[in-house]
DUF2752 domain-containing protein (Nocardioides immobilis), 154 residues
Amino acid sequence: MSTVQPTRPDNRVTTAARDSTSRWRTMLPPAAVLGTLAVATIALHVRDPHEQGSWGECPTKAFFGLDCPGCGGLRAVNDLTNLRIIDAASSNLLFVATLPVIAYVFGRWSLGCWRGQAWTPSERASTWSALTLVAAFLVFAVLRNVPAGSWLAP
């Protein structure tokens, strides 16, 4: 069984008909990521991570007694869903500060999928971004576990 595709007066299949099917296929990965994030965000809004033990305990905190760079991230998401931005920053400043960057990267990726043109940052940009992110995580992890940076602890 074949599907009939719209044709132009010169009997060529329209690009729009072909592109609409492939566009939806290329948008599946961003849609899946966005859907997963939405479900996780709703779960964190409904089940408050501020309540002791509601989501378990961070393994780094449990085994080593240290706050990892992610500690407070669940509470920060809950605070953001309740529009408490200052509380979210108090829970995990690094997470809140990186949200605009995460939104930008997701937006560029999604737009590239929509247009059918993959967004591929240069190797140099990718390397520097990764190194900067790792350095920020390390500095943040150290600072929030020393007395001078105790205000960064969740």
Observations:
- The chain has a mean pLDDT of 87.
- The radius of gyration is 22 Å.
- DSSP finds seven helices and no strands in the chain.
- The longest helix spans residues 93-115.
